[in-house]
């Protein structure tokens, strides 16, 4: 009987080791991301180019493997990424035609295309992992930080949209054009532009 328990314990230990090796070497983890923390728009800057508005944004991204409690404790990975990025909005003037500029004496009417986000990028040198915790049997998932950075880029893009970057781009464009044409001798300057709509994903 004693020998039976010895073999049973030995076999059970092998099963445990094999299960651990499976999760360590083979299992592909799922990830989950938390992007609902508030974004901080650090800087709103009017630009002289037809990139007419720029938002500098900080965003905190919480990312982790999506495991159950026990597996998370043994093999999980969780990090807090503090991301910084810049979103630039303006106008694609290649969409304008001669008919969009109508002058009558000292008056001019200008019709702009809809404003759009021209770029949305993470500043890698100012984006870093603030905190990270891993399970007992893992040193962390190699792809978790990379995927968190991708999520941060999308979140920063959306934060700029929600923060009114397209309206800011239109306002700045109107101010700049009015100044240019009034300094050129026009006494009445009318500028219109359709309302811009953010796309679902950042412009690459």
What's this, in brief?
This protein is α+β, with helices and mostly antiparallel strands. It has helices spanning 2-26, 69-75, 144-162, 165-183; strands at 31-34, 40-46, 51-65, 77-90, 101-104, 107-111, 116-122, 128-134, 188-192. The strands form two sheets. Strands 1, 2, 3, 4, 7 and 8 form a six-stranded antiparallel sheet that branches.
Write up what this structure looks like.
The strands form 2 sheets. Strands 1, 2, 3, 4, 7 and 8 form a 6-stranded antiparallel sheet that branches. With 204 residues, this protein is α+β, with helices and mostly antiparallel strands. The longest helix is centred in the first third of the chain and has 25 residues. It starts with a helix and ends in a 12-residue tail after the last strand.
Q: Tell me the number of strands.
A: 9
Strand portion: 25-35%
Query: In terms of per-residue confidence, which ranges show pLDDT below 50 for 5 or more consecutive residues?
Result: none
Order of helices and strands: HEEEHEEEEEHHE
């Amino acid at each position: 009987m004693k020998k039976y328990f010895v073999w049973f314990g030995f076999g059970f230990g092998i099963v445990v080791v094999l299960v651990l090796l499976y999760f360590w070497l083979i299992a592909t983890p799922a990830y989950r991301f938390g992007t609902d923390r508030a974004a901080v728009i650090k800087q709103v800057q009017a630009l002289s180019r037809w990139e007419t508005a720029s938002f500098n944004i900080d965003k905190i991204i919480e990312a982790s493997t999506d495991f159950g409690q026990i597996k998370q404790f043994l093999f999980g990975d969780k990090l807090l990424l503090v991301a910084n990025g810049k979103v630039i909005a303006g106008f694609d003037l290649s969409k304008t035609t001669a008919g969009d500029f109508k002058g009558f004496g000292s008056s001019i009417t200008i019709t702009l295309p809809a404003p759009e986000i021209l770029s949305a990028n993470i500043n890698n040198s100012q984006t870093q992992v603030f905190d990270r915790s891993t399970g007992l049997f893992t040193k962390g998932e190699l792809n978790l930080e990379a995927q968190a950075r991708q999520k941060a880029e999308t979140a920063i893009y959306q934060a700029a949209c929600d923060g009114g970057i397209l309206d800011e781009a239109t306002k700045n464009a109107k101010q700049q054009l009015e100044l240019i044409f009034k300094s050129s001798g026009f006494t009445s300057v009318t500028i219109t532009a359709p309302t811009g709509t953010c796309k679902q994903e950042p412009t690459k």
